[in-house]
Amino acid sequence: MKRPNFLIVMTDQQRWDHLGCYGNPVVKTPAIDALAAEGQRFDAFHVTTPICQPNRACLMTGQISTVNGCRQNGIPLGLDSVTYADVLRSAGWRTGMIGKSHLQNVTDIPAPARQPRGKGEIPAEWRGTRQQRSGPDYANEIRAKWAGGNEQEMPTPYYGFDHVRLCIGHGDQVEGHYSQWLHDRHPDPDSLRGPENALDAPEDRVPQCWRSALPEELHPTRYVADEACAFLDAQDEDTPFLLLMSFPDPHHPFTAPGRWADLYDPAEVQLPATAQRPLAAHADLPAAARHPYAMGDADPHSHWPFHLDEAALRRVIALNYGAISFVDQEIARVMAHLLARGLDEDTVVVFMSDHGDYMGDHGTILKMGLHYQSVIRVPFIWRDTADRRTAGVSARQASAIDFAPTLLQRAGLRIPLGMQGDDVFAADAPAAPVLIEDPGIAVFADADARSAITTLVDDGWRMSLLEDAPDWGELYDLTADPEEEHNLWSAPEAKDRKLAMLEALARRQISLRNLTLCPTARA
């Protein structure tokens, strides 16, 4: 039997319901909707951690972040990790990654100084309990090194990918292999990029938004699709391929180019039901839960979540929709190219996002903070090859660690020791509860901060515990309360459910212990 090709399409920081196939009546996504119509749309797929770098590591390794070691942005994935690309490559697949990787650090900002606890001295290089993932082998994605078309030499295979074309950054401020491509097409591309060159006046802008002067034909979204088509052109019908096509958009800053910036009228976008109920109105929230939003409100040009008024939220969402529709158009181009090359019937196509965005929930945007569905729930669409293609909607709960095992099982390969997820199509086992780990925002300033948020999603309920608020938690009935407005943590009628969720959390954490070296782990 012919081995399948795999085309994995990933967007960055896309809210799950910002797609037509997930019920959004405004945003236009015909190409993605077509994949959903021909394949399986998963309605309960979640992150394993709601932050870019660690969740991408979870997708690659099939391991939770406290096992693969990439616990937060700023901690690279170890080069000794086994990824799904490694496994497919070793079994004969040609492997390619185009676009955003974020498996290594994208800045060279030094980590905050830390000192070992207690008495006595130890050598500086042994101050941690894990050897540092630093040095030239972990500096391949430093954005500044690629600026100006300064091409860097990439070691391959790179986490299992033999063909690599990087986009590093977001909006119109992207570097990587894209930098040289851009410089080949414009004599001074920096004159088109960034807020200082934007087409709108600073006083007319919303934080994190500007009208970019970069045209769509020079945009990173176009580059990713062009390079994907070139990769497909290099394939032959006798060797299967894996291609990860990873768009940097619609992540902030929101700078949809040209006509895409004007495609949606802010007055016509739909705000979440909670948009007019900011977090400040929630009297029961402890200081630990409010902290990320206070940081963002103090500096709305940072990466922390912050509040906006209704008019500003509408402008942000309209630009976000524009970026998504631009990505959708480029996906359509790649799908047409796949068909023209005669590869369509033999290719599994998967669409996903690495995590979500509040996009107006409780008047906020961006990520980090409380684990609302807009941040932890993500789109996941699986369109199989012609001989196995079935259409439908799956309510099976799953998360990022389930992706690698699912891919490898579809390829007919055994799951390596240490991968912790399950095949989402396995009919012989019930879906496990979804465990979501999050060290919290405070670790960016203090790596030892006790700010973790741990969430369990199971059987239509979400429970979240905050490390630095031990007497408080969240418990939501997602079926009866999809907007997560009625916290049942202290409700007498939910006592039994709370106890059941606490037990399920403990059992799930036990089951996800590090199995890498365990001889009884499944293969």
Please give a structural write-up.
This protein is an alpha/beta fold. It has a single domain (5-109, 138-434), classed as 3-Layer(aba) Sandwich (Alkaline Phosphatase, subunit A). Helix content is 25%, strand content 15%. The protein contains 13 helices and 17 strands. A 9-stranded mixed β-sheet has the order 6-5-4-7-1-9-11-2-12, with helices on both faces. The protein has a 4-stranded antiparallel β-sheet with strand order 14-15-16-17, covered by helices on one side. A two-stranded parallel ribbon has the order 3-13. Helix 7 (220-233) packs parallel to helix 10. This is Sulfatase. InterPro entries: Alkaline_phosphatase_core_sf, Sulfatase, Sulfatase_N. Residues 4-412 form the Sulfatase N-terminal domain. One of its GO terms (molecular function) is arylsulfatase activity. It holds the Pfam family Sulfatase.
